[in-house]
């Protein structure tokens, strides 16, 4: 074990001892009994929905429904939810994993469409601290295409509330948001097209606001990631610190490995060893998913390229949808 790993484990143990997790009646972290995550936006789509470069999922935890990200185009999640006969008007909480437009694009359309049926629908947004940080283009001009300030102003104008998290928070029993994740492993799962200023210098934006959802279950953590810019190894460490349990049951969503060299996939698989399910959407990449399947000893039922409508259910596994080649 390297020094870096020792430090990571020390941080995990300290976080667990520090009692950041809410204790259940039996002294442990509350464990969710019923979990379902349904893909509402990703690149592949069968049924009557539409694919796009983006991500969104409906997360259901013991009856609590949470919209995780909102896709890229203003209306695609709305149309996909209709095609899947999923009613979002009784969902109040939304997680925006980070500021990139392929995760925020549907927020305003969805809020307006659903509040017409229920004023409380999609009325609470959770984000990670840093989401409002000024961003720049490569030449130093303000980045205007992906400006969360603009999205936030339009959202607040509808009466919606935004809560910025600087650390882990339990938003429903057993369902935690990581908040910004400590970058212990040297993962660079982000592009260099958008910059931030550090000491007056423009550097590639590491997307400090990147936040994932961690659900504690009796079988280990279920992680839902939007783009995984914090790095899935770092997110896995954060999940262990939150739940006090190093076991990983499922990783769902985008983990930004589509352009990663094989050595990164090998290193990632080593950290995710023991993972039972991978429902890999969006920026995970098809080739990376197939390679991770092989490295993790999973198969076509347990490591699947997500399509719109595909889902993971605790106790049942992955329902892939027709396009992923296996109907459960
Ligand atoms: Zn992103
Ligand atoms: Zn993305």
Write the layout of secondary structure elements.
Elements: H1 3-17, E1 35-41, E2 44-45, E3 56-61, E4 64-68, H2 76-83, E5 93-95, H3 101-104, H4 107-115, E6 124-128, H5 148-157, E7 161-165, E8 169-172, E9 175-177, E10 195-198, E11 201-204, E12 213-217, E13 220-225, H6 232-243, E14 248-253, H7 262-271, E15 277-280, H8 286-296, E16 303-305, E17 307-308, E18 311-313, E19 317-319
Parallel strand pairs: 2-17, 4-5, 5-6, 6-7, 13-14, 14-15, 15-16
Antiparallel strand pairs: 1-3, 1-18, 3-4, 8-9, 9-12, 10-11, 12-13, 18-19
How far is the first residue's CA from the last residue's CA?
A: 40 Å
Task: Write down how many β-strands occur, each being a DSSP E stretch of 2 or more residues.
Answer: 19
Could you spell the SSE succession in H and E letters? Answer: HEEEEHEHHEHEEEEEEEHEHEHEEEE
How would a crystallographer describe the biggest sheet? Answer: 8 strands, mixed
Tell me the count of domains.
Answer: 1
Classify the helix fraction into a percent range: 10-25%
């Amino acid at each position: 074990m390297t020094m870096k790993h020792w430090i990571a484990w020390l941080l995990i143990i300290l976080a667990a001892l520090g009692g950041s997790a809410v204790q259940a009646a039996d002294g442990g972290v509350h464990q969710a009994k019923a979990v379902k995550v349904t893909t509402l936006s990703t690149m592949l789509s069968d049924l009557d929905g539409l694919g796009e470069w983006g991500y969104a999922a409906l997360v259901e935890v013991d009856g609590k429904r949470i919209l995780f990200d909102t896709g890229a185009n203003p209306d695609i999640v709305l149309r996909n939810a209709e095609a899947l006969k999923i009613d979002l008007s009784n969902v109040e909480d939304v997680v925006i994993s980070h500021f990139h437009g392929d995760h925020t694009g549907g927020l305003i359309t969805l809020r307006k469409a659903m509040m017409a049926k229920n004023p409380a629908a999609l009325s609470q947004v959770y984000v990670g601290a840093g989401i409002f940080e000024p961003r720049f283009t490569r030449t130093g001009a303000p980045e205007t295409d992906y400006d969360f300030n603009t999205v936030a102003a339009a959202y607040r104008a509808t009466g919606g509330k935004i809560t910025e998290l600087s650390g882990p928070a339990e938003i429903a029993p057993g369902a935690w948001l990581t908040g910004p994740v400590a970058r212990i492993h040297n993962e660079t799962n982000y592009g260099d097209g958008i910059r931030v200023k550090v000491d007056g210098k423009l550097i590639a934006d590491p997307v400090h606001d990147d936040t994932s959802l961690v659900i504690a279950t009796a079988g280990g953590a279920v992680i839902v990631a939007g783009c995984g810019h914090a790095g899935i190894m770092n997110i896995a460490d954060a999940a262990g610190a939150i739940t006090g349990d190093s076991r990983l049951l499922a990783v769902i969503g985008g983990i930004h490995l589509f352009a990663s060299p094989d050595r990164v996939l090998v290193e990632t698989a080593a950290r995710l060893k023991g993972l039972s399910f991978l429902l890999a959407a969006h920026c995970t990449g098809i080739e990376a998913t197939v390679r991770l399947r092989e490295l993790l000893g999973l198969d076509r039922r347990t490591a699947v390229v997500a399509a719109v409508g595909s889902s993971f259910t605790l106790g049942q596994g992955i329902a892939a949808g027709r396009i992923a080649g296996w109907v459960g």
